[in-house]
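Exercise 7. Given the components listed, write out the predicted structure of the assembled complex. Treat all entries as one system.
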Amino acid sequence: MNAVDINGVTKTFNQGRADEVVALSEVDLTVGDGEFVSLIGPSGCGKSTLLRLIADLITPTTGTVTVAGKPAGAARQEQAYGIAFQQSGLFEWRTVLKNVELPLELRGLSRAERKARAEQMLALVGLEDFAGHYPAQLSGGMQQRVAIARALAVQPPLLLMDEPFGALDEMTRERLQSELLGICATTGTSTVFVTHSISEAVFLSNRVVVMSARPGRITASVTVDLPSRDEAGRLSPVFFEKITEVRQALRGTPAARPTEGAAAGSDAR
Amino acid sequence: MKGARSVLPPVLVGVLAVVAWELTVSLGRIAPFILPAPSAIWRELVAQRQNVWEAALASGQNALIGLVAGAALGVLAAMAASRFKPLTEVSIPFAAILNALPIIALAPILNNMFESTSSIPRRLVTAIIVFFPVFVNTLRGLREVDPIHQELMHTYAAGGWTFARKVRLPGALPYVFTGLRQASSLAVIAAVVAEYFGGLQTGLGSRITSAAAFTAYPRAWAFVVGACLLGLLFYLTTLLLERLAMPWRTRLIA
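Answer.
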């Protein structure tokens, strides 16, 4: 069973009004079980919209979104996914531990169960010593790690991330990327990851999905198979080849993909 | 010694101001019925300390009861108004009218509604004055929810009462306390001033008017100092409660 199935999805905002915007047009996307898929593209290409459709935060105008074999709405009700945004969105009045416990609390887990689980998740992101702190006492990178721990707390089969490392400095970002990969590998979680960093997308993903704007649509899909996902992987020739391939796909030039890129090449600048 | 450095300047300014006041009155030969010297007020305060204490207790009790009742009503009304949208639109103009009402001027009228020995009119005045800042601030806090929090709770499939309890109410606490801080000082002012219009002669306000009527100005001032201390006590207690209620806030006045 696929983690996510998107079929013929179109999303139009303000339909029928003067300021009508077609955010997504005829999008098909499948995310396999355990697969790490990045969505990349220029601002306004609808990558965040696509993620929010999967999360059932918005509903498609036409087409269907299926998560773990169920309609997106039903999947949300069952907390079939964890989500993290660019802002950590922690609750400032809850301690780090209580923040991670919140989704478990809403699921009705017992006090002891959720404490044990939350502690386990904090250990996973290396913050077990900060359980009693308040979010305001942590750095931005630590807050983002707490947000990831919270997204993972219900041990969802699917993780949705909207530029979660976008506001962090390069060093913190690279460390968190490695941590995230480790977590996804141990938990077997499928991931949909929105980013505007090409190197981030290539380093993290099994597949990079390239999108373009006006209207938002998928223009290319680049499969990445790095020899290893660590420092050596970042230095491997494959890494740079894939970065080039994604960059060209973003520009719409057909260099690396002669068969599919021909039509897109005509509107290259 | 960071504490001393932050305390020292205001204390120094205060002492200098009192010294300047004393010198102006004694050297400038200002008549004591215009402005008594601080030393004269201090002597009265010491001599009348028992009376000031008892009057402060009486006024303080009225202020406290009015404050608690008005604040509770303000919070409850704000919760109701934020829950039902149409109620918000209706309630805000009404609250504004209530606020614009010269409620102190209503005190004599309220006095006539109850027995002359009743403390209820004063508590009523206090409660009405307290209501507005608490209501307006709480309502604003309840309505300002971080959009990310809203989306997160949506993904957790949590709505209605759960959402209110876990997100709306704790998120509104800082606003509630902003309202309470304003309200705490207002409560004492309202309770004291409401006594200017007759009724029981037990509180600070009645003592100030009667001392002034007997041209005992230093004594009137001594009771004013008592009222000031009472207001300060209310304010500081609110700050302390705020600190206790919101341990995640590291600074007292943010």
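Discussion: The mean pLDDT of chain B is 86. The first helix of chain B runs from residue 2 to 27.
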